[in-house]
Structures are given as C-alpha cells and as structure tokens.
Design a protein that fits this description.
The complex is a heterotrimer. By secondary structure, chain A is an alpha+beta fold. Chain A folds into two domains: 185 residues, Alpha-Beta Complex (Aldehyde Oxidoreductase, domain 3), CATH 3.90.1170.50; 150 residues, Aldehyde Oxidoreductase, domain 4, CATH 3.30.365.10. Chain A is built from 13 helices and 17 strands. In chain A, strands 3-7-1-14-11-12-13 form a seven-stranded mixed β-sheet, sandwiched between helices. In chain A, a hairpin with a 5-residue loop joins strand 11 and strand 12. Chain A starts with 32 loop residues before the first helix and ends in a 9-residue tail after the last helix. Chain B has two domains: 75 residues, Beta-grasp domain (Ubiquitin-like (UB roll), Roll), CATH 3.10.20.30; 73 residues, Orthogonal Bundle (DNA polymerase, domain 1). Helix content of chain B is 36%, strand content 16%. Chain B is built from five helices and five strands, in the order E-E-H-E-E-E-H-H-H-H. Chain B has a five-stranded mixed β-sheet with strand order 2-1-5-3-4, sandwiched between helices. In chain B, helix 3 packs across helix 5. Chain B is globular, with a radius of gyration of 15 Å. The N and C termini of chain B lie far apart (49 Å). In chain C, the strands form three sheets. Chain C has a five-stranded antiparallel β-sheet with strand order 4-5-8-6-7, with no helix packed on it. In chain C, strands 9-10-11-12 form a four-stranded antiparallel β-sheet. In chain C, strands 1-3-2 form a three-stranded parallel β-sheet, with helices on one face. In chain C, a hairpin with a 6-residue loop joins strand 6 and strand 7. In chain C, helix 9 runs antiparallel to helix 10. Classes of the chains: A alpha+beta, B alpha+beta, C alpha+beta. Chains in contact: A-B, A-C, B-C. At the B-C interface, strand 4, helix 3 and helix 4 of B face strand 1, helix 2 and helix 5 of C. Chain A: InterPro entries: Ald_Oxase/Xan_DH_a/b, Ald_Oxase/Xan_DH_a/b_sf, Ald_Oxase/xanthine_DH-like, AldOxase/xan_DH_MoCoBD1, AldOxase/xan_DH_Mopterin-bd_sf. Chain A: Keywords: Molybdenum, Oxidoreductase. Chain A: It comes from Paractinoplanes aksuensis. Chain A: This is Molybdopterin-dependent oxidoreductase. Chain C: InterPro entries: CO_DH_flav_C, CO_DH_flav_C_dom_sf, Diverse_Substr_Oxidored, FAD-bd_PCMH, FAD-bd_PCMH-like_sf, FAD-bd_PCMH_sub1, FAD-bd_PCMH_sub2, Mopterin_DH_FAD-bd.
C-alpha cells in the first residue's frame, strides 16, 4: 500500500476547530484504476468507426518564409486520398484561443496563408481513406517558399533592427498599450541607492516538451442531426468547443465534445490543435475523421513550456533584508500567442516571489520568435520564475554568508503585508512551512527564527 | 490484402490485413482489443506491448501478416472474470496507475518478467520495464507493485 | 508507402523477392518506425521471419548465429554468456524480442552495438549466394544468413557501452575488443567502436598502438590518442560529437583495463 504521511495538525489549529477530514489523510482508491489495469479505460482513440477517414498535415520546412505557391496535385493522385484542405476551406481561419476571455488580436491561422512563422507550421491538411494514404498525400504536397530571416532569440527579437515577424507590427504582445506586463511598487532606484549590496544575475531555461504518452488527437463523427460529435483528449473541453465553433463559423450548439480521459496532458493538451481541421474534414467528407499527432509531431510542433530568460537585480542590506528587486523577464512565446500572454501575466503576478520587498519593478515581456509556439505547462509562468527567484535567494545568502533558510525567513511575506500588486497577503504560512521543513531535515534554526510567525507581524 | 489468423488470449481470430496493418492496429481496429495503446509507433514507448508466443514485443513494429498463426496475449486476457491477475491486483492496490495510458503495456512487460523470473530484484524489474515509458513518472509505485505481484504469485503458487 | 509484405517460407524464395526489388525486413525495429509515420516510395517488404534462419549452434569453440536469431534469444542462451552484456545494453526487452542479429549488422549508428562486438570477435557473415564468408563490418546491403565466430578464451573479450541511461539508450561510445597477451605484452588486438562514426569502426590505429606493449594505463592512453584521429562522430540527440571524442579515451580505458 502507498505510504500516507500523517497530517501535521500543530499549526493553525484555530482554523480547524473540529479537526475532522473525511478523505484527507486516508487511502482512497482511484475511481478509474480498475479500467486502467484491465485495459478497459476508453481513451479517444479506443473507439472504432466504420468508414473512418484520416487527416495528416503538410508542414512548413522553414522557420520563417513567404509561401509563393502550394501544389497539391500529386497528393490528390495518391490512391485513397479524398480531399486536401487549405486555408480557403477554413471558414474563419484566424484565431487566438484566449479570445474567449477577451484577449486580442487573433494572431494565428489554422492553416498558413501567405507565410509561415515556424518550422512545422501546418499548411495543408490531407484527408484519406487510410492513415498511410494520408501520410503519403501529405508528403507529396509541394510548397514553393521564399525563405526570410528568422528570429530565434527573445532579446534579439526586441532589438531595434530585428525583422518584425508579426502582422500586428510588434514582436511582443501588447498589454493595454504597453510593451510588457509591468509591476511598479515603491521606488526601486532609491532602494538600490540605500542598499549595502547589489546582486544581479541572469537565468534562462530551454523549452520543455510535455511528451504525453498518448499523442494529441481527436475523432469527429458527423451526427444524423447535422451536429458534430468530437471525441477528444483535450484538457480543455469548453475552450476546444467554443474555439472550434468560432473557427467553423457555426453555433456552439452544433458541436458536442466528449472527453475527460487524457493519456497524459500536463498542460500540453489545452491548445486547440486538431479539432477544427478534423471537423472541417468530417464536414467535407461526411465521414468520421481521425486526426492524431504522430510522435514526431507531438515532440516537434505541439507547444512546449516556453523558454524564459530572467534578469534579477536585488538591493540588499548587510543584515539580509532585501530593499529593492528589479526583474526583466522574457517569455519566448514562439510564433504565436496560444496561452503565453496569460502565462506571462502569471509570471508577473508571482513577482517578487513570496517575500515582502518595499521597492519592486518588473517588466514581463511576451515575445514572438520563429520558434515553435509555446503554451501551458504545469504552473507556467510561475515555475521558471521560481527557479530564478530561489536560485537568486540561495546565491545572495551564500554571498552574505547567511543561512539560506534564515535569509528567506527574514524576508518572508506575512499575513497583512501589502504585496507589490497592492493586494493584502493572507493565509501566507511560508514561515511555518520553512520552520517545519527545517525540523524535518534536522536543520537547526536559532530561537528568534523559530519564534517567527506568519500571523500579523506585517499588519 | 491478406487473411491473417491469430490465436488471441486463447481464442482463434481471423481478419484481413493491409500491408501497413501492424499487429497493434489489427488488435485495436479489427479485433476491438484496445488495451494495447499507440503512443509512438516507433517501438520507443512500450504502450503497445503484448506477448507474442509468450514473449513481450512492441506490437507497433510487427506487420500483422508476418505473424500469421501466432499466439498473442493482451491485457484483456489476464483477468479471469472479475478476478484480476496478481500483477493487475498489485497495480490496483499499489496505486501504480495515474493516467492509465502506459498501464496495459507496463503490465504485460511485468507479466512476461514474472513468467521468466518469479523472484526478480528491483534492478531486474527496472530493466524489464525500461522500454515502457510512464510520463506521469510514477515509476516507484510501478516497480513496487511488480515486486509485490512477484510475492503474490509465489505465495499463490504455494497454496 | 507499403505496397506488400511478403513472408516467404525459405531462403531461395526470399532471394527471388529481393532480386525483384523488395526490401529485407528482419525484426523491423529499424525499418518499421520510418514506414509507420512517414511517406515513402512504393515499398515491398520481404520478411525473413519464416525463412528458417533463426537458431544458435555452438560446436566446440565455433558459434553460429542464424541471421534472424533475436537479441532476446542470445540474452537467454547460457552458452552465450559472452554476449549477454552486449545484447542487454541494446534497446529494451520488447524490442530485443524482435531485433535480429542480421538486422543489427545494418542499423544506423549510434545503434548496432552487437555488430561492434561481432567485429571485435572477428565474426564472418555468410551471405546468400556467396561461398566465401564476408568480413565485418559489411558495407553493402546483402542477405546475411548467419554469422560465425570463434569463442575466445575467458578474459580476452572486452565490452563497454557508454549511454545516457543504464538501460535502453543508444550509444555515446561503444568499445568492443579482443586482446591477447603473452608474457605481459599484447600480442594480438582487435578493437571495434560504435557511436563514433556513421558505421561500426575497426580501430586500426588503436590496435597498432597496443600490440607489442604492456597493457597498462600509459599504453592505453597513447592508443586512445592515436585512435582519436580515426573518429568521425556525429552530433545527435544523445551527445555532441565533441563530447563523444572527449570521453572516448575514458571508455577505451574502462573497456581495456576495467577501471
């Protein structure tokens, strides 16, 4: 049986007067486990349909290019190929998944029109009787390109002489008229001036692919009512339904999404990548259609966690109090927005970390490059920022010859503190978590640090 | 197109295979046995692992026509009615599943290991499942469940 | 696109199909991944599964591996303990059940570790339609029916494969060697390398630097420096060419000296 750690009920007793939990602390069998061990759990691809057709994609061979012409004649000659789909077959080709929460502009085509902005961008979809015929047809599409200079680095993309790759006119997402999501609190320059020490370092991360064992895919089945039933492994059923309907230019009620069983997602299945084209193919052929990524597509073109570059400059007093923190943060969104404008806002909302610092300044840039579009992945925005912030904390502690836990406790936010976003912190508990973690690993803390509490000191 | 006969989980099956029909796709699409999964079609993830003549294979790399007449075992054949195999029961009890996509392949690799080696070391279990990718990264409970299943099998054999 | 998969019942039938343009399919572990997911010219395959070429015979010190013998069959044959660490360093259990001896002679680097070992063992390939056995590595496609080698005395054969993970990972550098010593001096050496070029490499410079010298750290260090000139590794997902060259002397030392 799995090990279940006993619940630590020492802290915050007053918030749990009866101390009764019905599930927490107990071992409860997963409701889906029996299906998993018997192979009966039904993933989207575990349904078979007579007359199933298949979609495969011809993708861009270049990071950045103008498309001069597309020749599909050889693809159509492959036995078993039913249709080719180009951007002209997509009723409303330009989209942005986050438009559902009011974010603009629509910056991504379902299928490329006159240009491609990343290697692997979809240009033509081929529908065929068999998967093999669809693959063969897609391989035989011919595209004539004029290759354009590519921008593959976030800071290079923001340089004054960088080629502008986005039709909106800037290589960055515009936040309410600004070049970045900004955070301004106190006077950071004055903070640096009063500080005993200044520490400035650079942090960066590479894109990370979720690599779910089950690749992204769906099966779309035309119903006798005229509706389309979408069996999908999306992690975002309603985002998928609404965006697909907007792309198809059909009422939301025309679509039904059946999902919820996902063979590994980790945020990699929240974009709307396969359903629109599968729906178009199903409509054009009036047949059930499957569109599932190959493993190579999953690794190469499904959106990864964004690469980030983060510069942190801190002003610190000799006693370990941080008095100013300035962060310049760059999220590599790749060629299109997907969920990155939101992820960048999350990164900004996380700054300056769980510490109370009187002077904070941050510019968080959502930058477009000619790399694979990035998007959601487990805590995106926060995860890499935390890597940078906590690395920074360790390095400063080392430079000051301070215990890294004591350094954090000294700066930890407490209930009642005003955060840099002008929200009052509550339920912080950072101090208690550090105290208990230290005790668990036998890391001794002096009396004054053991006596600290997240309650009230800042109020 | 060729007619192919297989004995699957002890039952004779006949189907028509195209040249590109792999053993995996035949099981899934023609015989309705969808326990084995397609995770990569490259032989790299192990989600499609079934037993071919008692030995584990990545069924995505086997053209169906080449194994005409073979004996195949899949995850669907392990349980005896509601009674799970020792490996299945150990996975269930040991919380060795998360998304469930790798589970059938993982279980077939485990069954094959224990058929050959009833008392494996932890290291031997690691080697046996080195071709089965669990991206939810629940390897520790999986390895523990396989070791637990080995005990259950040995004790079951003694009864 | 696959047009046909032939499954002939004997070697002459296979030879006829190959002559008509069909591509040889052994275990499929190298060929099928490409055919599953990518477009291709019209392709007919000829599977060797039923041609009767599987089997291991050991007669005295002579070992013969039928071409379609799987890596798993070698792994589980007690007479071939010599090759056990070699095949267990390759891929994973459900792949080794399919992958064949013959196929391993032709897989692309950085795969093909059994072929590296067989080159070091001075194995000979029997080719269909040829009387003379062929020396390894083979450079041209051919229908191999068997591979034969003389089993060396204990301690003569050495093998090290450096990989990113202990199990199921392709080669960074593979070293296989047979080294014969007499009176503290190396009198015979045959060294083969994987992971350091686009084919299995016979490391002649290393062999020359070993012969006539005592097998010690200084000799092996000098042999590695000589051997570096023959390497032409590639950058791939497993390692950079720079890294492979950088660690080659370390793995040569570990293979030859055991430390």
């Amino acid at each position: 049986m799995p090990r279940v750690n006993p619940i630590d009920s020492d802290y915050f007793k007053d918030e749990r007067p009866d101390d009764k939990f019905s599930v927490i602390g107990k071992t409860v069998q997963r409701s889906d486990a029996l299906g998993h061990v018997t192979g009966r759990t039904e993933f989207f691809e575990d349904r078979t349909f007579p007359d199933l057709a298949h979609v495969k994609i011809h993708r861009s061979a270049h990071h950045h290019a103008r498309i001069n012409s597309v020749d599909v004649s050889e693809a159509l000659r492959v036995p078993g190929v039913l249709r080719v789909i180009t951007h002209r077959d997509v009723p409303s080709n330009w989209y942005m998944v986050l438009r559902l929460i009011g974010i603009e502009p629509n910056d991504e085509p379902v299928l490329a029109e006159d240009r491609v902005l990343y290697k692997g961008e979809p240009i033509v979809a081929v529908v065929a009787d068999s998967e093999a015929a669809a693959l063969e047809g897609a391989a035989r599409v011919k595209v004539d390109y004029t290759v354009l200079p590519a921008v593959l680095d976030v800071e290079a993309a923001l340089a004054p002489d960088a080629p502008v790759i986005k039709q909106a006119g800037t290589n960055y997402f515009v936040y309410e008229g600004h070049h970045a999501r900004r955070l301004r609190f106190g006077d950071v320059e004055q903070g640096f001036a009063q500080a005993d020490r200044i520490f400035e370092w650079r942090y960066s991360s590479a894109p990370i692919e979720h690599a779910p064992t089950e690749t992204t895919g769906c099966v779309v089945v035309p119903q006798s009512s005229g509706r389309l039933l979408i069996h999908s492994n999306t992690q975002a059923a309603f985002f998928t339904l609404d965006n697909t309907a907007l792309i198809l230019d059909r009422p939301f009620t025309d679509l039904q999404v059946k999902g919820g069983t996902v063979g590994g997602g980790f945020g990699g299945k929240v974009d709307v990548m396969v359903e629109p084209l599968a729906c178009i193919a199903a409509t054009l052929t009036n047949r059930p259609v499957k569109f599932v990524y190959t493993r190579e597509e999953e690794m190469q073109v499904s959106s990864p966690r964004a690469a980030e570059r983060i510069y942190i400059k801190d002003g610190v007093m000799n006693d370990g109090r941080i008095v100013a923190r300035k962060v310049m943060l760059y999220v590599d969104s790749g060629a299109y927005s997907r969920h990155s404008p939101y992820g960048t806002t999350k990164a900004c909302a996380h700054l300056p970390g769980p510490y109370t610092i009187p002077n904070v300044y941050a510019d968080c840039h959502c930058v477009y490059t000619n790399r694979t579009p990035s998007s959601a992945m487990r805590g995106f925005g926060v995860t890499i920022a935390d890597f940078a912030l906590e690395s920074q904390m360790d390095r400063i502690a080392r430079a000051l010859e301070m215990d890294p836990l004591q350094f954090r406790l000294k700066n930890a936010y407490r209930d009642g503190d005003l955060k840099a976003h002008r929200k009052v912190a509550e339920g912080t508990a950072l101090i208690e978590v550090i105290q208990r973690a230290a005790a668990l690993v036998g890391h001794e803390l002096p009396e004054e640090y053991q006596a600290m509490s997240s309650r009230g000191a800042g109020a | 197109m060729r007619i192919v006969n297989l004995k699957v989980n002890g039952v004779g099956k006949t189907f028509i295979a195209r040249p590109e029909t792999t053993l995996l796709l035949a099981l899934r699409e023609q015989l309705g046995l969808t326990g084995a999964k397609r995770g990569c079609a490259q032989g790299a993830c192990g989600s499609c692992t079934v037993l071919l003549e008692g030995e584990p294979v990545v069924s995505c790399l086997v053209p169906a026509v080449t194994v005409d007449g073979a004996d195949i075992a899949t995850v669907e054949g392990l349980a005896d009615g509601p009674a799970l195999s020792h490996v299945q029961q150990a996975f269930l009890d040991g919380f060795a599943t998360q998304c469930g996509f790798c589970t059938p392949g993982m279980i077939m690799s485990a069954e094959a290991l224990l058929d050959r080696n009833p008392d494996p070391t932890r290291d031997e279990v690691n080697e046996a499942i080195s071709g089965n990718v669990c991206r939810c990264t629940g390897y520790e409970p999986i390895v523990s469940a396989i070791l637990d299943a080995a005990v259950r099998r040995r004790e079951g054999a003694k009864l | 696109m696959l047009t046909e998969v032939h499954v002939p019942e004997d070697v002459p039938a296979a030879v006829g199909l190959i002559a008509s343009g069909a591509t040889i399919l052994g275990g499929g572990t190298a060929l099928m991944p490409a055919l599953n997911d990518y477009g291709s010219p019209p392709t007919a395959l000829v599977s060797l599964r039923r041609t009767g070429l599987a089997g291991i015979t050991v007669a005295g010190s002579t070992v013969t591996l039928g071409a379609t013998t799987t890596l798993a069959q070698i792994e589980h044959d007690a007479r071939l303990a010599l090759l056990n660490p070699v095949v267990r360093s390759i891929a994973s259990v459900p792949v080794r059940t399919l992958a064949t001896v013959g196929g391993n002679l032709f897989v692309r680097q950085p795969h093909g570790d059994l072929a590296v070992a067989l080159v070091a063992l001075d194995a000979r390939a029997t080719l269909a339609g040829h009387d003379e056995p062929a020396e390894l590595p083979l450079r041209q496609p051919a229908l191999v029916t068997a591979v034969t080698f003389e089993r060396p005395e204990p301690g003569i054969f050495k093998y090290v494969k450096a990989a990113r993970r202990r199990f199921n990972s392709a080669s960074l550098v593979t070293v296989a060697a047979t080294v014969v010593e007499s009176g503290g001096i190396v009198t015979g050496a045959r060294v083969a390398l994987g992971g350091v070029g686009d084919h299995v490499l016979r490391a002649h410079a290393v062999e020359e630097a070993l012969i006539g010298r005592p097998l010690n750290e200084a000799t092996v260090h000098a042999a590695a420096q000589d051997g570096l000139t023959e390497l032409s590794p590639a950058d791939d997902a497993y390692a950079s060419a720079w890294y492979r060259k950088r660690v080659f002397p370390v793995h040569l030392r570990r293979a030859l000296l055991g430390c």
